[in-house]
Amino acid sequence: MARVPSVERVMTSAGMAPLVAQYGRTQALAALRRMLDDWRRDAQAGRALVEALDEARLVQSVGAALVERERSRIRSVFNLTGTVLHTNLGRALLPDEAVQSVVEVLTRPANLEFDLASGSRGDRDDLIDDLICELTGAEAATVVNNNAAAVLLVLSALASKKEVIVSRGELVEIGGAFRIPDIMSRAGARLREVGTTNRTHLKDYDEAIGERTALLMKVHCSNYAISGFTKEVALNELATLAKARRVPVAVDLGSGTLVDLAQWGLPRETTVRETIEGGADLVTFSGDKLLGGPQAGLIVGRADLIAKIKKHPLKRALRVGKLTLAALEPVLRLYRAPEFLRERLTTLRLLTRPADDMRNTAERVAPALLHAIGEEFSITVEPMFSQIGSGALPVDVLPSYGLAIRLASGKRAGRQINRLEKILRELPRPVIGRVADDALRLDMRCLEPADEAAFIAQLQAKGARE
Ligand SMILES: *Cc1c(COP(=O)(O)O)cnc(C)c1O
Prior knowledge:
alpha/beta; Aspartate Aminotransferase, domain 1; 3 domains; seven-stranded mixed β-sheet; four-stranded antiparallel β-sheet; 19 helices; 19% strand; binds pyridoxal-5'-phosphate; SelA_trans
């Protein structure tokens, strides 16, 4: 067996000095030991190369291993899937105001729970609840980690050991782990299902209300739609019944928009304000779906119910950190000037991007892409459909533009297309598209002009390497 050089000798070699300076001796030494251990293991299996023990090569391998280890596991990607609020790709992108605000609270102390007026202890919700009330028309508000937490907290605080009445048509599952019946039992509430999958009437709720009823609940169907012979009870009818029977109504809006999206030609969604005006006593919704902010769950509604929710021990466990509050406040403030919203709120800007804009982007990036992927493929600029995502308005699709990549030979070739998809996914800043019908589709909706140069530069670097 070849002689493995001494660890000490390699560590003190000239080539190692810059690595020790950059990563520290501990990491550099550990990386070298791993390298030599691997070599010994390979040698025993008869697979090791003696040249690999060359001092310069060892140092180079240690350097490469350290670079790889230091690379962030959470990385930015190009979202060309066409889904704007892609849960797996981090949902809403935040505007600069929010980023600046987060940087501030990350690097400086802040009045998170300190009342600057009195100099005494404050409540972190106070920083933001007035703004939420102003934008939703609610009496009171509180914020937790996400909307699933908001629903769990509402049920735990108001319906533990009691019954909650929900229509069978609204017992939804949202992305695997969040199912209304499961959340209900976790919160210690008893689910009382009424109606049928396709039709639920006011009298179904009426007949189910009893001594043990704590809450009537409506849930936004988010990621599914039923059509045909259907009937759901409108919120105002349900609220009238609830008031007469002295039971509160909670609505889980899911995405929960603060403005009427129809004014920008997007599909209409009931706003949070309309839901409050429609008679909901409590409304829960996400911060990082249509709202366009950070991951958070907002609970708004009647002051007495919000006070009860805030006193529940789970509120402490589910509370948001300062980063969330710092990001949420500037996003909410944008809603005070609806005339600028389309331009300033990143989510809305992406959802309303003009078709010409996306087509121009597609045409500008196509040559670099073609050069990088090679002659085997053909690229065409095509109309396609984007989705809002995150369960918002599942049946509505947004006309969009993008690139469709196929085999130049015109042959059906799932394998080559899948290989290409993988190559793009393994770029330093991965490019995520979607494969369907023997084509890789790259939707340009989320490739904004500010990112175009980076997208092209990465492809040119790849082309040059090969
Ligand atoms: C998305 C959604 C949730 C979960 O919200 P998160 O913010 O992802 O926790 C709950 N209910 C409905 C109706 C939803 O659409």
